[in-house]
Amino acid sequence: MEKKCVMANDHGAVELAGKLRKHLEDLGYSVTYLGTDNPDVSVDYPRQAEKAVEEYRRGGYDFGVLLCGTGIGISIAANKFHGIRCALCQDTYTATMTKKHNNANFIAFGGRVEYKEDPLKILDAYLSSEFEGGRHQRRINEITEIERHC
């Protein structure tokens, strides 16, 4: 089965988006790229998150990658959508745990952030981790219940 990812970014993360996209393609992922490749033209990150989530919801995607200058704004925007769990990971540990414990379906990065670890390794940690289920599924169910009431 083909591995598929949706990716979007704003003008603040063009270079990193290109690196992550190439890395995913080298790993055999088909990447539906909805981002901008022009760092000189301002693009609003909430709309980029919206486009990626709408595409993800069409089905067939394993996960999504979102990028803006810090990763903060685009992850906040994505998390406004029901069923989306977007994690802004700063290192391989948080990337591993967001998959194992939160079953995050999106991961976010900041194009203007100086990471202590290579963002490609952070992405690899996310990709190589598996959701543990159990008590963690109960907590995801609780998040889903909160979404229904808000």
From TrEMBL:
InterPro entries: RpiB, RpiB_LacA_LacB, RpiB_LacA_LacB_sf. The keyword Isomerase applies. The active site is at C68, H101. GO terms for biological process: D-allose catabolic process; pentose-phosphate shunt, non-oxidative branch. One of its GO terms (molecular function) is ribose-5-phosphate isomerase activity. It holds the Pfam family LacAB_rpiB. Keywords: Isomerase. This is Ribose 5-phosphate isomerase B. It comes from Candidatus Ornithospirochaeta avicola. The lineage of its organism: Bacteria, Pseudomonadati, Spirochaetota, Spirochaetia, Spirochaetales.
